[in-house]
Amino acid sequence: MQTHNQPQTNRTESRRNILAGIFMGIFLGITFGWIKQNIVVGLAMGIPLGIAIGYVLDRRIPTMRMPAFRLRRILYALITFLVFMNVSLFLPDQAGDQWNIYILPLTILAGIWFIMATGKGIASLDEMQRRIQTEAIAIGFALLAVVALGYGLAGILVGAPQVNWLFFLAAMPLCWLVGKVWTLKRYGQ
Amino acid sequence: MKNRLRLLRVEKDWTQTELAERLDVSRQTIHAIENEKYDPSLPLAFKIARLFECKIEDVFDPQ
Q: Which residue among B31, B35, B41 places its CB closest to the CB of A127?
């Protein structure tokens, strides 16, 4: 019975992961689309990225042993956060507007949910992988601090152009990734 | 820290994946311990020693 049900469960899991990836891609696309004022380019970049992430989820990431449901929760939290962030960016730019007052705590709550889902995901890893991830976050945090400080100073000293604050939000996972590659190498992976 | 994990595993004729499953860790963790890139926590070290029915100092050598 178990061997008969296994492929069916895997197929359902696979469809869910790919679907979650596509949705994430759409929201990523909309986010980047609005930032760049070109939603088509954003969607064209976001959807393949989302599908790729869904595919990786389906393979359960060969180096990390995070359960698929934990990865899915991180994805849902990220999507919710992106939705609220998009809505808050789309709202009329009037400080103190009624809708702005409601959407601000919702965006912050979605951000907290994302942090908690990520934290629980990391906690579900085995001890070495947990160490790799936490060291990667530490390295990424330090790296981002240096980048932000460096760019801020460049703006003051040599007149570097101002960048959108969303750039730093996008730079965060990139710095984490750099930290992860560094730490993986240290542990001989 | 030096260890005899690879030797003990080969004696039992287990693959890294099999050992990882028995210890409930990832294969990568076994790989890192065997290559002395990662020192396991005390609970994991005890688990390894129990699995191979020996003392911790028979598996791990702090020298």
A: B41
Output the DSSP codes for A68-121. Answer: HHHHHHHHHHHHHHHHHHHHHHHS-S-TT-HHHHHHHHHHHHHHHHHHHHHHHH
Strand partners, B2: B61
B32 neighbourhood in chain A, CB within 8 Å: 128, 187-189
Confidence bin at A31 (pLDDT 50/70/90) = low
For residue A127, give the nearest of B31, B37, B44 by CB distance: B44
Q: Which two tokens stand for residue A24?
A: 């994430």
Torsion of CA A68, A70, A71, A73, to 10 degrees: 120
pLDDT tens across A97-118, in order? 677 777 888 889 999 999 999 9
pLDDT at B18: 93
Give the 3-state secondary structure of residue B7.
helix
Q: What is the pLDDT of residue B22?
A: 93
Check CB contact under 8 Å for B29 and A189.
Answer: no
Test mutation, B1, B29, B37, chain A, max A CBs within 10 A? B29
Q: ipTM of this model?
A: 0.86
User: Which residue on chain B is closest to A65 by alpha carbon?
Assistant: B26
Give B41's contacts in chain A (Cβ within 8 Å).
Answer: 127
